[in-house]
Each structure stands twice: as structure tokens, then as C-alpha cells.
User: Fold these one by one.
Assistant:
Number 1:
Amino acid sequence: ETPLDSDGAWRRFSPEMDTRWQETRALEAALRRAAAEGEFELHFQPQVALPGARLTGFEALIRWRHPERGLLTPVIFLPVAERLGLMRRIGAWVLREACRAAATWPAELRVAVNISPCQFEDGMLPATVAAALEASGLPPGRLELEVTETVLLASADSALGQLQALRERGVGIAMDDFGTGHSSLTQLRVFPFDRLKIDRSFVKDLPCGSDAMAIVRAVTGLGRSLGMAVTAEGVETPAQLSALLNEGCDAAQGYLFGRPVPEAQVGTAIEALSAGAAA
Ligand code: C2E
Ligand code: MG
Ligand code: MG
Ligand code: MG
């Protein structure tokens, strides 16, 4: 990815690339420091069951509290962390923190944790998850892992075995960003996911976009016939919600129900949703 790592790269080198390269180097150094010094934190976004918008749990979403640049979103730094080989360590921290936090919530609430494809590489994910569950005392049924289609494409055999082991232990497995990858339907035959999360890009165009509507209808139907729950991501408006209700979608997540909040505000989010604020 750097301008220096392929043949002939020097010839294509420009001042603009130099700046970008320096920025990447600086980000790398800062990321190593962040991982060592605990600058990461988790925010939690409500997930609700439909039709009543009953709170079922929260998705844990990582943030980097950068000393100078403030709160950074994962799209900026996770790809770099993955490339640097820091993702397994960060991912293990996310699992421990998410389980620790969830163990303090009311017992009917679950936590969803995103897992990067890198975390399957060494075959240790089931052990890492088991350690996080044991340390926190969280029952496995209150944890759901969110993986993307790339996981099964990249390291099919090993990832599949690890997902199966986790599932046997009672941990839920969801396919995240469903519909954006390349072999969605094949993947569904390969592994029996507990849940499909319809990508936000489809929900965004509801209720007017007829393509988006057709996709949402197809995915909810697919989930129903395969016995998988279907969650719509990125629900922002009542009009989107009513379109999803019409299709019999099982669950939803999005700004309409609540934004991701720091752990200290989870209690407030629980109260707000119990009061039926969004329903
Ligand atoms: P994701 O797992 O699909 O998470 C949903 C993303 O959509 C989150 O972005 C969330 O803040 C955002 N979102 C939720 N509702 C709405 C809405 O109504 N409107 C809009 N516009 N956005 C909404 P975030 O937190 O920036 O995370 C981005 C991605 O980074 C996540 O996508 C996930 O793939 C990855 N990620 C986040 N935390 C972790 C982590 O701890 N580990 C790993 N491996 N990946 C993570
Ligand atoms: Mg997710
Ligand atoms: Mg998603
Ligand atoms: Mg997404």
C-alpha cells in the first residue's frame, strides 16, 4: 500500500504521495501507542426487536480517543490496524471489554461484537471468546458475533470450523452488511447464521427506492425460509421503519432508536427505549 513497496514505485513517487506516506507512518506509530496505552473505547448502539421496538441489546463499536484529534471512527484506523497485525490484540480487547460491560446490564440484554477476518487467522478465536466470557461471567447466549462475507471467502475452512465451535458453545453468529459482498447466497448454505443484517445502503433508500425495497423483501423472505432472524441496519426515519414492518423484518438498529453511546450512557439509553420513545 505504501508507494515504496512495489517495483518501479520510485518513478511514480510524487510530493502528494510523500505526504500521504508520512501521514500513514504517523498513523501507524500512533496506533501502536494507542494499543499499548489504552486509548480505545467502546460505544454501544441499541438493537431492537420489531414490531414493538423492544430493546434486545447493544452492538459494541470501537472508537479511538486520540489525544490531539479527538474521537476517531473505526473506518479510519481499523484498516491500518489490520495491515499492521494489531487487529488480533485489539479484537481480543474488544471482546473482553464488551463482555465485561454486558455482564453489568439487565440479564435479557445481549451484546453484539464485530469480528475482523484477521481474528480467524491463528485459529484462536474460540479460545479468545471463551476467555472473555469466563472473565466476565457473561453467559454465551448473551454474546453475538458479527462477521462479514469476506470471512468465509478468505479463510473458508478454518473460519468455518471456528464459527461452528463458537456456535456449539452457544454464542450467536450474525452475518453483517448482508448484500454488499460477492457470494451471499452460497455463504448461507455453507454456514447456518443465526441472523442476517441487511446493509444500511439498502435501508437508506426505503421506502421509495424500488430496488432497495425488492432487496429488503428478498432478504427478509430468505431469512424467514432459512430460519435466520433479519435485522435492518441504519434505520433513521419512521418511513423506513414502516416499510420494514410491512416486510415483516424481525429487528432493527439505527439512529431512529439510538446512536452509539459511551458505556456511561447505556443506562439512559435503556430507560429511553423502555419508555417506548421510538415506537
Ligand atoms: P457495522 O458493524 O456495520 O456497524 C454499523 C455502523 O453503522 C456503525 O458505524 C454505526 O455507528 C453506523 N450506524 C448505525 N446506525 C446508523 C444510522 O442510522 N445511520 C448512519 N448513517 N449510520 C449508522 P461505526 O461505528 O463507524 O463502525 C463502522 C464499521 O467499523 C462497523 O460497521 C464495523 O464493520 C467496524 N467496526 C466497528 N467496531 C469494530 C470492532 O470492535 N471490531 C471490528 N473488527 N470492526 C469494528
Ligand atoms: Mg456490525
Ligand atoms: Mg453492518
Ligand atoms: Mg455496515
Number 2:
Amino acid sequence: MSFSSVLITGANRGIGLELVKQLANSADPPTHIFATSRQPDKAKVLNELASKSSNIHVIECDVKNEESIYHLVSTVSSQVGCNGLNLIINNAAIAYKHTLATVNVQDLIENYHVNAVAPLMITKQLLPLLKTSAENGHKTLVVNISSTLGSISKYRKICVGDYQYTYRASKAALNMITRCLWVELKPIKISVVSICPGWVQTDMGSPDADLTPEQSVTGLLKTIENLSEEDGGKFFTFDGKPNPW
Ligand code: NDP
């Protein structure tokens, strides 16, 4: 991996956990893998991985909580020091299902908060560490794990009606945040992309999904590794194909 420090949110299960596994087991693993969990004491598999790999740092973080993000930033900062942080993978998310008949303000706000607001605030708070990485000449990247369900142009082709006002709209917002961040951070050599992991066999995706977490994450990491400067500000599928906004 060309990244020596990587932060993954929501790393105690699903795609986040598999990202930690594959990064730790790669031929050239990062020096630091910061793996966040809301409840680290219950993150059994993640803790087992961390007990075998000293480069995995398990950090408590609820991405909705600003204090928790400050704690995350100070822990990451104390580990990476003047090398900065190379890669953020904003992975944590929730998927509330609602129809127009059932949708309510509280669930809408929570879904937007976790899926769109939090990735922006995490990126904002970690910006000094990203800048340091870029100034040191390292490839520096923010990956927002989005969803094709958030694609407005693909809406008619993939129709899962009960996700629309909450999950779909939050990922569409995240995609716009990717684009806005990219425009602002490109001049200082920090790249930002959205990637959909595919339909994956996790708690969110269901056991009937197309891909195992292993298949999805193998594709995601290859796509991330191969991203060049020209790819910034774009939306990709897990296997590196262009995804329409
Ligand atoms: P899971 O539901 O399996 O895992 C979600 C992760 O997010 C968990 O670690 C969960 O922690 C964490 N999380 C949720 N809320 C918060 C919070 N407030 N603070 C911190 N962490 C939180 O989902 P997947 O692994 O399937 O999804 C990973 C990403 O991939 C998401 O962004 C999702 O939208 C995206 N995606 C997934 C697809 C799929 O088919 N699986 C398809 C398209 C996109 P906890 O255990 O504490 O709840």
C-alpha cells in the first residue's frame, strides 16, 4: 500500500472491519491503521486483529459526537506526528428505511448526520494532518464510501423505494460534499472521491447481496491504490469504473 497511515470509521463490522483485515494482512501494510468503533469493548474481532498487529489502533468514536471526533483527532495526531495522515476512509453509515408515509424529522436528521455531516466534520477536523501529509509529498486522499443508491441519474434503474428520503438522499448529499471538498482541497494536493462498495453481504447489505466483504474490499483497495490526481472529485464503483452522479 502506498499509504503509511489510514483512518477507517465504523471498523468493528462489515466493510470497515474487512478493510482493516486486508490492510493489516497486505504485503506492505500501513504503519498506522486507525480503526474506529462506537463501542470498542464490544468489537471482539477488531480487538483480536489489533492484538496480533501492533499497527492497528482501535479508537472509540461516535461520528455524530463532536467531542468524540476531537478525541479521535488528538489520538491520531499523537501517533502520526509530523508525518501527517495519508488516507481517511469515511465508511460508517446507517440506513433507515422509510416511505413518505412513515418518514420523520428525527430519523432524517440522524441519517444525514451519520452519512453526510459526519464525513465532512471528520475531514474538517483532520485537515491539518492531511495538509501535513500532502506537504510532505505523500499521496493524500479522502474516500467517502457512498452508494449507487445515492445516484440521481441511476434512480429509475435501481428502485428501492423505502430507502429513498433517508439513505438515498444522505448519500446524494455525501456525493455533493465529495465534489465540494475536492474543489477546495485540490489546490493543496488533497484528493477526494466517492466510491460505492457494491451490494455486499453485511448487516446493511443482507446475506443475499452480490458480493462478499472480501470481494468488495479487494476491489475497493485496488481502486484506491490506483487512483491518480485526475480521478479526484469523481464517483467510482468498487472495481474502479466510473459511477454516474
Ligand atoms: P454495516 O451496517 O455492516 O456497518 C456499519 C458500520 O458503521 C458499523 O461499524 C457501525 O457501528 C458504524 N456506525 C453506524 N453509526 C455510527 C456512528 N454514529 N458512529 C460511528 N460508527 C457508526 O454496514 P456496511 O459495512 O455494509 O457499510 C459500510 C459502508 O458501505 C456504508 O457507508 C454503507 O452506506 C456503504 N454501502 C454498503 C452497501 C452494502 O451493500 N453493504 C451498499 C452500498 C454502500 P456499530 O456497530 O456501532 O453500529
